[in-house]
Amino acid sequence: IVIYTYFYEIDKGNWSRVLAALAFWGMDFFNEIWNGLLFHFTQFAPCWSAPGNSAFLIFIGLNIEICFMFAITGIVATMAIPKDPKMKIMGINNRWFFAIVMSILSVCVEMVLNHIGALRWEWSWWNRGAPWLIFLLGYMPFYVVCYWVYDMPSRRRQIAVVSSIFGFDVVCMAIFAGGLG
Question: How does DSSP assign 15-61, residue by residue?
Answer without folding.
Answer: HHHHHHHHHHHHHHHHHHHHHHHHHHHHSS--SEE--S--S-EEETT
